[in-house]
């Protein structure tokens, strides 16, 4: 019915680029199927980015775990990675997994881009909350992946029911303009919300449908009083002028009337730069397109060893590698997989490098622990102290 692939299509290699199918025919005809090590490597980050958050690992492991005698070493999901670093090494006979290269990169490139953008928004917000509101900007078939990647990257909640189920969270949201248009008035719509929706749901009124935000905020606050948790401003940029000035005006008018506990939630084309500008006045942010439509990260997969012989294409360093990281200063080195870690070379912290790769699959047997989305998110946020945007 819809223009989407089924899980079985991915497992059967139907999502491969055609040149892998042709390569498979040629190698079979030539009697060649060597054991290779292929490295997934970050070629470049978007302009202005110094790091990324790895996402999509779990799907790759699930895809490859059915391949006999295949082994995978990788950074765990939620790990910070940097430019020109490998994030995964796959070892096995080429014809057993080469046809999956397109899907493997698709899993990593998009999910990591979303998780990275979410992390940038989360860091920008500081102690303010950030929610993923971007499901309507992507094909619904991939909404759960988008929501999970955004949550892993650090957002505090997601808006869709299935996306929230996947990460074992409750969905978050306020009210749409449609409700207010149909009810005919912002206050009437908010009263109806208060009367019908269960009390545990916070009462947040959307105030930019018909009239000036300041006056609508006052009307709603006077109508609901202490029952009103917050107001949301989704003012379109064409009507906005200075969004910060609008927020300051609304905050002032609410405060002088004793409604200083009402929260201000902003949405509508928000990204990390907007969050940095508005966070001293706004209480939380709904981020849509910036996260769900985040730039994909430019990973590639290249053979670096064939039957134990170190070899690579032009512009790539031969030999399977790993990344070691100092837990004290977060300094990284890329070394060959059989090299041992040593003391940090920064010359200041006195820390010791640690291999941040894990053995995820050994000859077809899954060793990866599959942490929950909340556990991954907690790990991601724990790395923020080393990061800047």
Describe the structure.
There is one protein chain. By secondary structure, the chain is α/β, with parallel strands linked by helices. The chain has two domains: 7-114 and 295-386, nicotinate phosphoribosyltransferase (Alpha-Beta Barrel); 173-282, Aldolase class I (TIM Barrel), CATH 3.20.20.70. The protein has helices spanning 7-11, 18-30, 57-64, 94-97, 101-125, 143-153, 161-166, 177-183, 186-196, 213-224, 237-240, 243-256, 272-278, 289-292, 373-382; strands spanning 35-44, 52-53, 71-74, 80-81, 86-93, 129-132, 157-158, 204-206, 230-233, 263-267, 284-287, 298-306, 309-310, 321-326, 332-336, 353-355, 358-362, 365-366. The strands form four sheets. The protein has a seven-stranded antiparallel β-sheet. A six-stranded parallel β-sheet has the order 7-6-11-10-9-8. The protein has a three-stranded antiparallel β-sheet with strand order 15-14-16, with no helix packed on it. Helix 3 runs antiparallel to helix 5. The protein is elongated. The model has no long low-confidence stretch (mean pLDDT 95).
């Amino acid at each position: 019915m819809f223009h989407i692939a089924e899980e079985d299509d991915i497992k059967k290699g139907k999502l491969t680029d055609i040149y892998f199918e042709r390569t498979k025919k040629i190698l079979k005809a030539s009697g060649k199927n060597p054991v290779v090590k292929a490295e997934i490597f970050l070629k470049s980050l978007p302009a202005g980015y110094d790091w990324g958050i790895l996402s999509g690992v779990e799907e790759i492991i699930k895809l490859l775990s059915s391949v006999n005698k295949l082994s995978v070493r990788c950074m765990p999901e939620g790990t910070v990675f940097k430019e020109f670093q490998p994030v995964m090494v796959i070892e096995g006979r080429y014809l057993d997994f080469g046809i999956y290269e397109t899907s493997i990169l698709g899993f990593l490139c998009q999910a990591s881009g979303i998780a990275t953008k979410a992390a940038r928004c989360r860091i920008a917000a500081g102690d303010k909350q950030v929610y993923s509101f971007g499901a309507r900007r992507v094909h619904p078939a991939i909404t759960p992946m988008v929501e999970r990647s955004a949550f892993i990257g650090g957002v505090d909640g997601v808006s869709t029911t299935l996306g929230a189920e996947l990460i074992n969270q409750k969905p978050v949201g306020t009210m749409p303009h449609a409700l207010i248009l149909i009810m005919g008035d912002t206050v009437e719509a908010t009263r109806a919300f208060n009367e019908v929706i269960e009390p545990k749901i916070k009462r947040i009124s959307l105030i930019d449908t018909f009239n000036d935000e300041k006056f609508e905020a006052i009307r709603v606050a006077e109508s609901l009083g202490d029952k009103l948790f917050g107001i949301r401003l989704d003012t379109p940029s064409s009507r906005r002028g200075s969004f910060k000035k609008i927020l300051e005006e609304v905050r002032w008018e609410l405060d002088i009337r004793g409604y200083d506990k009402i929260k201000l939630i902003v949405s509508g084309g928000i990204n990390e730069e907007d969050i940095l500008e508005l966070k001293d006045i706004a209480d939380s942010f709904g981020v849509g397109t910036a996260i769900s439509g985040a730039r994909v990260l430019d990973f590639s997969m290249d053979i670096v060893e064939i039957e134990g012989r170190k070899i690579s294409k032009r512009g790539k360093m031969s030999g399977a590698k790993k990344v070691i990281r100092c837990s004290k200063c977060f300094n990284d080195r890329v070394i060959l997989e059989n090299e041992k870690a040593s003391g940090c070379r920064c010359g200041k912290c006195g820390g010791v490098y640690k291999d941040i790769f894990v053995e995820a699959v050994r000859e077809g047997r899954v060793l990866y622990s599959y942490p929950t989305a909340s556990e991954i998110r907690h790990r991601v946020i724990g790395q923020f102290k080393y990061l800047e945007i």
